[in-house]
C-alpha cells in the first residue's frame, strides 16, 4: 500500500468506429467528445487516488500507435497557470492528451480507405514502457519489480478483431504474463473481441462489455479504478464465458476446429502435408486419418434445411475446400 500503482491506458482512436458509435440510431449513442471527457475524469481520479501513482496514455490510430502522455513537449496554453478553478497537474494532463489526439487525427487526413487500428503496436509500447520503468538491477533492495510499480494495462476498444493480429496479440499476452501485468479491457462499442477476451482472461484482468454506454464513467470508476492489489478484497466483475477460438496461420481466419503442428504448434484450418512455419513433413497415413475425420462442410445453396436463406460461400471458404480436395487427390496418388 506504500507504493504507487502504474496505469497504462490504451485508447482505440478509429475515426470510422467512433462515427458509428455516435450515430443517433444506436440505443445509447456515445460521441467521441463525451467519451474523451469521461476518460480524462478517470485518469485524473487515478492520479488523485495516491501521490505516487503514475500514468501513461497510448493512442491506437489507424496504421500507427502514439504515446500521448507523458509528453516531452511543453505546453504553451496560458490558461494552465492562470485558471484558479482547476488544479494545474490535472489541467496539464487534460491539455496534453487532448492536443496530441487532435494533432494525430489531423495528420490522418480524409482518406476513404482507413488502415487497421494499430492496437497491437500500442499494447507492445505499453509493455515496453512498463518493463523499462520496472527494471531494477539484480540483487538490489527493490528487485521485486512487480511490487515496485503494481502495473496494469487498460484497453478501451471500439474496433472489431483483426484476424492477422492473432499471433502478435498472443505474444503480447505471454509478455504480460511474464511481467505479471494485468490487462483490463472495456469494450465500448462494437461486437465482442475474441482476442481481447483471451488477453484479459489469461492475465487475470477484467473484460467488460458496455451494455449502457451512457454510464461509461461509472463503469470506469467502479470496475477499473481499483488497483490489482485492491481487487483481492473487492468483487470485480468478471466475464461469464471466454471465446478461445484461434486464427489459422494459413488464411488468418478464426476457426472453430483447427489442426495443430506437433512441432511448432502452428494452427491450420485443414491438414497440410508440410508445415509452412517449421517445414515439418507429416506421414501420409496421418493426413488420410485427419482428412477422414474432418466435419462435412455443407454445399452452398440458396436455402438451408430449416428454410432460412443462406448466403453463398465466401472466397476464403471456397479456397479452403478447393485446397482440401486437391490434397486428398495428392494423398491418394502418393499412397
UniProtKB/TrEMBL annotation:
Q: Which UniProt keywords apply?
A: DNA damage, DNA repair, Metal-binding, Nucleus, Transcription, Transcription regulation, Zinc, Zinc-finger
Q: Which InterPro entries match?
A: TFIIH_Tfb4/GTF2H3, vWFA_dom_sf
Where does this polypeptide localize?
Nucleus
**GO cellular component terms?**
transcription factor TFIIH core complex; transcription factor TFIIH holo complex
Question: Which GO molecular-function terms appear in the entry?
Answer: zinc ion binding
GO annotation (BP), single: nucleotide-excision repair
Q: Does the keyword Zinc-finger apply?
A: yes
Out of the domains of life, which is the source? Answer: Eukaryota
Q: Which Pfam families match?
A: Tfb4 (PF03850)
**Transmembrane region positions?**
none
Assembly mode: Component of the 7-subunit TFIIH core complex composed of XPB/SSL2, XPD/RAD3, SSL1, TFB1, TFB2, TFB4 and TFB5, which is active in NER. The core complex associates with the 3-subunit CTD-kinase module TFIIK composed of CCL1, KIN28 and TFB3 to form the 10-subunit holoenzyme (holo-TFIIH) active in transcription.
In which family does this protein belong, per the annotation?
Answer: Belongs to the TFB4 family.
The protein's job, in short, is: Component of the general transcription and DNA repair factor IIH (TFIIH) core complex, which is involved in general and transcription-coupled nucleotide excision repair (NER) of damaged DNA and, when complexed to TFIIK, in RNA transcription by RNA polymerase II. In NER, TFIIH acts by opening DNA around the lesion to allow the excision of the damaged oligonucleotide and its replacement by a new DNA fragment. In transcription, TFIIH has an essential role in transcription initiation.
Please identify the protein, giving its name as recorded.
Answer: General transcription and DNA repair factor IIH subunit TFB4
Q: What is the lineage of its organism?
A: Eukaryota, Fungi, Dikarya, Basidiomycota, Agaricomycotina
Amino acid at each position: 500500500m506504500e507504493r504507487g500503482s502504474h496505469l497504462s491506458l490504451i485508447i482505440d482512436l478509429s475515426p470510422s468506429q467512433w462515427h458509428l458509435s455516435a450515430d443517433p440510431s444506436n440505443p445509447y449513442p456515445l460521441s467521441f467528445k463525451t467519451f474523451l471527457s469521461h476518460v480524462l475524469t478517470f485518469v485524473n481520479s487515478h492520479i488523485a487516488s495516491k501521490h505516487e501513482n503514475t500514468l501513461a496514455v497510448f493512442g491506437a490510430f489507424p496504421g500507427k500507435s502514439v504515446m500521448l502522455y507523458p509528453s516531452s513537449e511543453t505546453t504553451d496554453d496560458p490558461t494552465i497557470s492562470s485558471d484558479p478553478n482547476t488544479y494545474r497537474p490535472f489541467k496539464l494532463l487534460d491539455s496534453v492528451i487532448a492536443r496530441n489526439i487532435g494533432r494525430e487525427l489531423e495528420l490522418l487526413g480524409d482518406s476513404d480507405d482507413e488502415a487497421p487500428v494499430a492496437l497491437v503496436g500500442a499494447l507492445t509500447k505499453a509493455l515496453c514502457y512498463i518493463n523499462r520503468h520496472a527494471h531494477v538491477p539484480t540483487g538490489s533492495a527493490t528487485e521485486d519489480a512487480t511490487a515496485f510499480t503494481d502495473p496494469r494495462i487498460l484497453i478501451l476498444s471500439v474496433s472489431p478483431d483483426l484476424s492477422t493480429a492473432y499471433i502478435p496479440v498472443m505474444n503480447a499476452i505471454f509478455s504480460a504474463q511474464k511481467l505479471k501485468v494485468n490487462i483490463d479491457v472495456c469494450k465500448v462499442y462494437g461486437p465482442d473481441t475474441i482476442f481481447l477476451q483471451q488477453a484479459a482472461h489469461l492475465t487475470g484482468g477484467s473484460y467488460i462489455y458496455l451494455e449502457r454506454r451512457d454510464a461509461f464513467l461509472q463503469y470506469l470508476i467502479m470496475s477499473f479504478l481499483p488497483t490489482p492489489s485492491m481487487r483481492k478484497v473487492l468483487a470485480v466483475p468478471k466475464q461469464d464465458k471466454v471465446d478461445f477460438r484461434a486464427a489459422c496461420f494459413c488464411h488468418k481466419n478464426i476457426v472453430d476446429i483447427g489442426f495443430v503442428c506437433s512441432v511448432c504448434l502452428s494452427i491450420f484450418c485443414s491438414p497440410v502435408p508440410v508445415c509452412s512455419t517449421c517445414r515439418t513433413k507429416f506421414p501420409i497415413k496421418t493426413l488420410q486419418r485427419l482428412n477422414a475425420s474432418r466435419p462435412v462442410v455443407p454445399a452452398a445453396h440458396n436455402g438451408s434445411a430449416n428454410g432460412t436463406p443462406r448466403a453463398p460461400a465466401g472466397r476464403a471458404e471456397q479456397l479452403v475446400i478447393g485446397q482440401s480436395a486437391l490434397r486428398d487427390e495428392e494423398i491418394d496418388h502418393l499412397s
